[in-house]
Amino acid sequence: MKQSSEPPAKFYLISLVSFLITAYLAVVQKWSVQEFCWCVWLAGLFYSWTCVVTAAIQIMLTVRTNKKYYDAEAPFVQSISPEVFALVIIPVTVLAGFVALYIYCWLFSFYGLFLSVFAEMPPLDLFGRNGFINSDFFTPVTYLAERYWPMIAATLIANADDFMRRQAWERMVLPFRDNQILRIHIMTLALPFLMMLTWALFREAYQPLTIVILIGIFFLIPKKQFKRKNIVDHDSEHE
Questions:
Q1: Confidence band of 164 (pLDDT split at 50, 70, 90)
Q2: pTM of the predicted structure, to 2 decimals
Q3: What percent of the chain has pLDDT over 90?
Q4: Integer-rounded Cα radius of gyration of the chain
Q5: What integer pLDDT is reported at residue 188 of this predicted model?
Q6: Are residues 168 and 40 in contact, defined by beta-carbon separation less than 8 angstroms?
């Protein structure tokens, strides 16, 4: 059956609800542009972590039932029994998960350094240009998560379909494959130009308008590709 590359209708509904809730909170709580930048950073980090953790759990839980998939992808494992294969693949999965989590932490540490220069905000010992670089990575993350957890929740809900994909190994690099990381890059680069434009048009109201527009970009722009490549359970395929 031919798969459509168009976003499903539920994508628009969930994304719209996430956009409305986040935009409402941003306006009511009077987020600054700097706060929103750090919220996007936080949401991207938790999205990446969730991709890795859910993928690792799925791989370990389905390794025996998906043995035929691995046999097809790597014929040299066909002679290994499902039990022995599980004993091998589980520690490999745990190791791969830790490596992926480390890479994402390192990557977002770099983004955090960038934001601490161009989106400096209090407390400066965590989010200032001389603060973030000297603080441990998880203290700023915890501080933000306690205050802006709705942004995390909205992002995970809007992208819940990503965490249900059957190809768990792909999911570990999903933030790159589906351009989530690229989207953060674009928003960061577009921010100063958008701020100048909204300031020129709306003066004192430029910050909330800029934030609402950026939230719309973050939640409402469809992903590049919505085709799903599923790992097929061979037993169910022949039923």
A1: confident
A2: 0.79
A3: 21
A4: 21
A5: 61
A6: no
Q: Does pLDDT of 227 surpass 50?
A: no
Could you give the CA distance from residue 160 to residue 180 in angstroms, rounded to a whole number? 14
- Sign, CA torsion 78/172/58/164: negative
Please provide the size of the chain in residues.
239
Contact present, 63 and 89 (Cβ < 8 Å)? yes
Is a pLDDT exceeding 90 seen at residue 238?
no
CB contact at 8 A, 226 and 4: yes
Helix (H) or strand (E) holding 195: helix 180-202
Q: Which residue has 């590049």 as its token pair? A: 224
In terms of Cα–Cα distance, which of 112, 227, 216 is closest to 178? 227
Find where tokens 């190791």 sit. Answer: 95
Burial of 234 (0-12, 13-18, 19+ CB in 10 A): middle
How many Å apart are CA 49 and CA 66, to the nearest integer? 24
Q: Residue 44 and residue 141: Cα distance in Å, rounded? A: 12
Taking Cα atoms as reference points, which of 155, 200, 215 lies closest to residue 31? 215
Better-scored residue on pLDDT, 15 or 230: 15
What are 23-35's pLDDT values in tens digits? 888 888 888 888 8
238: its two tokens: 């022949």
237 phi/psi in degrees, rounded to 5: -65, -35
Q: What pLDDT does residue 237 have? A: 40
Query: What would you measure as the largest C-alpha separation in the chain, in angstroms?
Result: 70
Q: What CA–CA distance (Å, rounded) separates 23 from 26?
A: 5
